[in-house]
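Hey,
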Amino acid sequence: MAITEEQIRTIVEETKKQLGPQASDDVIKTVVLETIRRFGSDEGKYVSEHPSTFKYLNKTEGRIIVTAFGKNQPGVISGISQELTNCNCDILDVSQKIMQEFFTLIMLVDIKNAICPFGVIKENMAKISEKIGIRILAQHEDVFKAMHRV
């Protein structure tokens, strides 16, 4: 699916509004590129980020939940943990299960000493996801808790 220059401008302007004036150019670029990438996913269906996630993309505080699933292969945990290490994140807890040829993982990660904002960490997880061919999601703990409260 081709995206016009006007659509890209609209995406950039909406991203700036959602992130606010404190957002760095790098975070804005990361969010815009992720949005554009999503236009081409799921057979052309755009998957939107929940609006409450935007306020966390420029943060380096709190904890995040990283989940991964897909076909098992060597290097999955290594790839994910290396990307987190590159941003100086602290992995607090890990749960993983291999069921026949399928791999699942949940990580609790502290980002208070991270050198990358949450938006960059999300983008790094998206890149490693494409590289190793499994689905990886990163959510800020506050959003995760709000989505899963009863």
